[in-house]
Structure formats: structure tokens, C-alpha cells
């Protein structure tokens, strides 16, 4: 088989009929501050993420807490002309990534969202398109499984997930996986990505100062 056919790039290039959702919540305790405003060299980490995902989607949403909206808008002002961005704000602060996803799903102009963290600047298009092409008519969500664990913060969610996500929030849940039992999740096993060099980097986040150093200098171990 042509390797490009495996990635879904043959007949599958161009902008997807979906939205990117960048989840900006969290205080980044191991980083010593909010990763939403973290700089990687002379570039904001969020700008690195945006430069990756905006060419692939018809719109991009950044989900943030109320306290982050105003400073983020100031930072985004110089780059708004480049990208189709919208900021959505948590209705109830402190409810974790599930609140951000729920708010974003309720604001989409498309039927599907690709959700990632604001600290994931190495997301790969080929990995994304494998997930996208794994959807079935019954799928509500599409999630990879690496080392036996699901990767909900690098996954596709249909707007059909919204009722289950809201029920999970009402139960006091915060985790993205907390509503998976109530929807049809299509799981993509790691074997589907193994032919892609460095595919695991797509799922990685910048969680520590050491991670940031490795991002700036990929030669570091």
C-alpha cells in the first residue's frame, strides 16, 4: 500500500469540515505558571499550536476561564488577522477540561471538533487525519490508544457528545473521559500510527521546564 494512502492524505488533503478546539485551562503548576501565556523562545506556545492547526480547520476555538479572557485577547490582537479565531469562556470556572470542551461543543459552527491542549505544539497532520478517517456513521468520538491508555486530549468529538458531557459536569466530573461510557467512542489503536516517524510527539504536551527546553532544542535527550 502507498504510505500516503495509509495516512489518509490521498483524497483527504485540504481543510477539514471541522473545528479545532484548543483547551487553555489549567494553572500549569509544574511549569510555574499558566501555560496559556507561556513563551517558547520568542514565540508564545499557543501561537506555535495555532500555526500548526489553523491550516487544517475551518475555524479555531480557544476555550479559557473567565480570568484569562482579557489578557488572551490582548495577546491575540496582533495575530487575529492571520487566523479565524474565536475565544469561548467557561460558564463555571474550576471544572477542568470537560467544562472547556462542553463550552466549545456548544459554540461550534461545524459538527466535529478536534480537541487538544494549549501546550501541544507538535501535533501532526498525518496523525490527525488517521483519526478523522477512522470515523464511522455511529461515531460520537474518535480517540487513540497508546500503551493501553486512551488519549482524550488529542481526540475528535462530535456535537452529539454535548448532552453526555453536560450530564457529566452536572455529576461533578472534570475529566474528558468521564462521559465516554455514554457515547460511541471509536478507538484507534497505536498500530495505526507506527509507520509515521515520531507520531508520539503529536500527543505530547509541554508540562515541565525540561519539556520546554527539549521543544526549543530537539537534540536534547
Walk me through the topology.
Blueprint lengths: L2 H5 L8 E8 L15 E2 L2 E2 H9 L3 E8 L1 H11 L8 E5 L6 H10 L6 E6 L7 H9 L7 E6 L2 E10 L3 H9 L14 E5 L19 H8 L5
Feature tags:
7-stranded mixed beta sheet; Spore Coat Polysaccharide Biosynthesis Protein SpsA, Chain A; 24% strand; 221 residues; alpha/beta; disordered N terminus; two-stranded antiparallel sheet
Question: In which order are the strands of the major sheet placed?
Answer: 5-4-1-6-8-7-9
Query: What is the CATH class?
Result: Alpha Beta
Order of helix and strand elements from N to C terminus? HEEEHEHEHEHEEHEH
The average pLDDT value, as a whole number, equals 86
Q: Can you describe this structure?
A:
36% of the residues are buried. The strands form two sheets. Strands 5-4-1-6-8-7-9 form a seven-stranded mixed sheet. The protein has helices at residues 3-7, 45-53, 66-76, 96-105, 125-133, 162-170, 209-216, and strands at residues 16-23, 39-40, 43-44, 57-64, 85-89, 112-117, 141-146, 149-158, 185-189. The chain has 221 residues and is α/β, with parallel strands linked by helices. The longest helix is centred in the N-terminal third of the chain and has 11 residues, at 66-76. Residues 1-11 have low confidence and may be disordered. The radius of gyration is 17 Å and the shape is globular.
At a glance:
By secondary structure, this protein is α/β, with parallel strands linked by helices.
